[in-house]
Amino acid sequence: MLNIVLPVDFGDKTDQLVDGAVKFAKQVNGKIFLIHVAPSDIGFAIGDMGYQYFPEVEANEIREELVQLNKIEQRILAQDVDCEHFLKQGLAKEIILEYSKMKNADFIVMGSHGRSGIYDVFVGSLTKGLTKDSPIPVLVIPIHE
User: What predicted TM-score, i.e. pTM, was given to this entire model?
Assistant: First the structure.
């Protein structure tokens, strides 16, 4: 069984990315390790008094993101693909690489934007960073309108 790390950001193309990853996982008898990296500054706001931290805002956002991860996990499991999820706050590239190594990933599956021929716009900065720095193969799935 191959281990496939699938980072998701809950954007409008997440469903297409998940569908592509599920298709790939079925072809290679893979298990999907779903990951979402939340920003470290979720509960911070800037106002008249400078930066302020609101732990209840952060807790609510993390709770909502866990609900979304659970829904995606259940959708993947319903298609007979083994799956588990993980959420962590921090810098996306570093956490995805660390998690991929921890799970002995055979592949990291990312999506491309498909907006332009310019590489940074085409694959996105996170995908570009992972393909550049990852010792693990990165499979880029084209995501189109």
Answer: 0.85
Q: What is the Cα–Cα distance from 49 to 6, expressed in whole angstroms?
A: 39
Tell me the domains of the chain and their CATH numbers.
2-142 (3.40.50.620)
The two three-digit tokens of residue 93, written as one number: 């590239």
Q: Could you tell me the pLDDT band of residue 60, with boundaries at 50, 70 and 90?
A: confident
Contact 17, 2 (CB under 8 A): no
> Which helix or strand (DSSP H or E) is residue 47 part of?
strand 44-47
Distance CA 72, CA 14 (A): 9
With helix as H, strand as E and coil as C, how does 92-144 read? HHHHHHHHHHHCCCCEEEEEECCCCCCHHHHHCHHHHHHHHHCCCCEEEEECC
- Binning pLDDT at 50, 70 and 90, where does residue 8 land? very high
